[in-house]
Amino acid sequence: MTLACVATALALTITPARPAGAFPHVVRSGETLAQIAERVYGRVEMEQILVAANSLDAGRGLSIVPGMRLEIPSVGHHRVTAGETWTSLADTLLGHPERSDVLAFANEAKPWIQPTEGQEIRVPYNLRYVAGPGDSTLTVAYRFLGQRDKAWMLDRYNRLGGESLQRGDVVLVPLTELELTTEGKALAASAGALVRSEGAGRAREAQRRAETELPQLAADVRSGRYVDAVARASRMLGSGELSRTQLAQIHQRLVEAYVALDAQGLAETSCLAWREADPALVLDPIELSPKIVRACTNASTLGAAAPPAAVIPSAPASASAASSTPPSAPRRSPVGGR
């Protein structure tokens, strides 16, 4: 048997099943790991990720040869469905519910604030590393995560309970800094990885951009820049697939802007979309102007499929005037005119 056959067979035997975010690459003649790392990630130092992901450091180490099939690590993506939490997602996507903190932090979120329906989240790549002589969570954290102070995270992620690593122990290292180059994305696409990874994060990028623009959209409405608000909201809606929470906020601002512009029909249409994104919507006449309540009430007759928005009855004028107790929570100023 040739050396190439032995190396290929061994690599395939000891390489774990490919995660949803990873994709295969067949080594071509003259290629080195450093060249592949630079093409895929744009950084030569990512060679060590390829070495660990393909167990090329097993024993005395394996050299790559033409025809060898390598696993190229990359992050995965998942679209959140109704009822999913960080805990349930971590159990499904990362292998254990106690890894929910890592999943939340990988998405710039707080573990106690659950993801929203329609949100696209980033799923870390679980790098399998076999501990060698002298390895500890400190050295592994520094080698793959660039920070020794993340050793506690590796300990918790692998449920080590503070125990020292022994030679041969398998450690899972959650990697998120695996941004692909344009060429890397093309290689992933040709391998079908982008389809498995639910759009390769395009929805997530659109959702992140929307999060940065939502405060600006609200500011446009508050400042009376209604035409600018409509233009911004329309641009956000066309940027990609947004979460239901984001859609509800955008359509709410559109309703407010259209009401202020006396575009009653457009306001009613936007309210239908608002209610579809937020079925639990309650129209508070203290929070919202009468024009907005009226537009959304009229919209109820237009969209038979959408659940009618609940309307909180207005308090009698005498009771309102007599009450001197401030509301328990601050309310934003009504928009759209009274």
Automatic annotation (TrEMBL):
<protein>
    <submittedName>
        <fullName>LysM peptidoglycan-binding domain-containing protein</fullName>
    </submittedName>
</protein>
<feature type="domain" description="LysM">
    <location>
        <begin position="25"/>
        <end position="73"/>
    </location>
</feature>
<feature type="region of interest" description="Disordered">
    <location>
        <begin position="313"/>
        <end position="338"/>
    </location>
</feature>
<dbReference type="InterPro" id="IPR018392">
    <property type="entry name" value="LysM"/>
</dbReference>
<keyword id="KW-0732">Signal</keyword>
<dbReference type="InterPro" id="IPR036779">
    <property type="entry name" value="LysM_dom_sf"/>
</dbReference>
<dbReference type="Pfam" id="PF01476">
    <property type="entry name" value="LysM"/>
</dbReference>
<feature type="signal peptide">
    <location>
        <begin position="1"/>
        <end position="22"/>
    </location>
</feature>
